[in-house]
């Protein structure tokens, strides 16, 4: 059964259409990778799920979580879901952490916000458990340290600890490794895989990097200009990509077979707030067809 079901989601900011009729499902325990170039609508989609878009955004469609339409939920009910049943980690750990509060205290705040009535000792236990789960060194001592006393990768671990402290069912990770160097990135991806297994997390993993997504996602959805272009299992996306855009994304990913003396394919980008009217008009006229079970693509 789907834990999250997005149905015909549209988000626009004035005349800018950021998401156009997006429909997606994530089954319980599954990890869906959402890929697309800058400006394709990935973050706007995740912010719409959490109802964190600013007032100027016009949102239509349905976003069902555990069978309830999040877009119709009262603000109070949404607040209690956010951070508890649905947690999120962002790209830039330093801006998401409070620089003048010890990390243990920040994790404790996340715990107290959603689990009232815990004793100080119980809160501390949960903080140390969360720090241990994300493999932060020496939690009992380091919980008193400030964000700047941790490395970039460790700070991302602190954010992940905050996100999982309340045992969420859905974890949304928006470019969680983009700010990190490759080695640390691999460690964080490893950690996310591990947490997924341990806690049975359902995951929406967002990245512009198909190679990164392929390491954590069971299924991959490709977006461009706010449109879903293709969706399939990870294997199918890599073995039999159907949409030309997916193929061009794959062409930009180095593999063991990439010829070293030839440059990788590059993608024609777009500027933020811009779109390619010709491309979107073409694509909008095409239906998303289910080409084989679980494999959908927008094709002629
Ligand atoms: N608050 C906003 N006001 C106006 N336009 C916005 C706002 N937020 C996003 N947009 C526009 O919506 C579109 C989608 O943006 P979004 O942030 O979802 O892209 P993204 O796929 O996450 O890109 P990136 O890979 O750069 O993070 C872009 O054209 C962007 O300019
Ligand atoms: Mg983004």
Summarize, please.
The chain is built from twelve helices and twelve strands. With 300 residues, the protein is α/β, with parallel strands linked by helices. The protein folds into two domains: 184 residues, P-loop containing nucleotide triphosphate hydrolases (Rossmann fold), CATH 3.40.50.300; 82 residues, P-loop containing nucleotide triphosphate hydrolases (Rossmann fold), CATH 3.40.50.
At the fold tier of CATH, the topology name of the largest domain is: Rossmann fold
- The topology string of helices and strands comes to EEEHEEHEHHHHHEHEHEEHHHEE
Number of helices: 12
**Proportion of residues in extended strands:** 25-35%
Task: List unreliable stretches of 5+ residues.
Answer: none
Radius of gyration: 20 Å
What name goes with the CATH superfamily of the largest domain?
A: P-loop containing nucleotide triphosphate hydrolases
How many DSSP E strands? 12
Small-molecule components bound: adenosine-5'-triphosphate, magnesium ion
Largest sheet: 8 strands, mixed
The total tally of domains equals 2
Mean pLDDT: 91
CATH architecture of the largest domain: 3-Layer(aba) Sandwich
- The CATH class of the largest domain is identified as Alpha Beta
Kindly report the spatial arrangement of strands forming the biggest sheet.
Answer: 6-7-8-3-9-10-12-11
Report the structural category: alpha/beta
As a percent range, the share of helical residues equals 25-40%
Distance between the first and last residues' Cα: 31 Å
């Amino acid at each position: 059964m789907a834990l999250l079901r997005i149905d015909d989601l549209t988000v626009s900011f004035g005349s800018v259409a950021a998401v156009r009729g997006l429909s997606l499902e994530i089954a319980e325990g599954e990890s869906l990778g959402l890929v697309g170039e800058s400006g394709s609508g990935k973050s706007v989609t995740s912010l719409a799920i959490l109802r964190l878009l600013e007032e100027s955004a016009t949102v239509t469609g349905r976003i069902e979580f555990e069978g309830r339409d999040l877009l119709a939920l009262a603000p109070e009910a949404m607040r209690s879901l956010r951070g508890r049943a649905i947690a999120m980690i962002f790209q830039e750990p330093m801006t998401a952490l409070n620089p003048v509060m010890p990390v243990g205290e920040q994790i404790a705040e996340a715990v107290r916000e959603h689990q009232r009535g815990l004793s100080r000792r119980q809160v501390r236990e949960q903080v140390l458990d969360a720090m241990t789960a994300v493999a932060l060194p020496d939690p009992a001592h380091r919980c008193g340290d400030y964000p700047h006393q941790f490395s970039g990768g460790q700070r991302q671990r602190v954010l992940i600890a905050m996100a999982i402290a309340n045992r969420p069912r859905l974890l949304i990770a928006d470019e969680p490794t983009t700010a990190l160097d490759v080695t640390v990135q691999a460690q964080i991806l490893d950690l996310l895989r591990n947490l997924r297994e341990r806690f049975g997390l359902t995951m929406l993993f967002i990245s512009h990097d198909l190679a990164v997504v392929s390491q954590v996602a069971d299924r991959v959805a490709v977006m461009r200009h706010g449109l879903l272009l293709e969706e399939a299992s990870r294997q199918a996306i890599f073995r039999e990509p159907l949409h030309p855009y997916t193929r061009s994304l794959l062409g930009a990913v180095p593999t063991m077979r990439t010829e070293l003396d030839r440059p990788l394919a590059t993608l024609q980008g777009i500027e933020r707030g811009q779109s390619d009217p010709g491309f979107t008009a073409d694509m909008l006229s095409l239906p998303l067809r289910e080409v084989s079970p679980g494999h959908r693509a927008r094709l002629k």
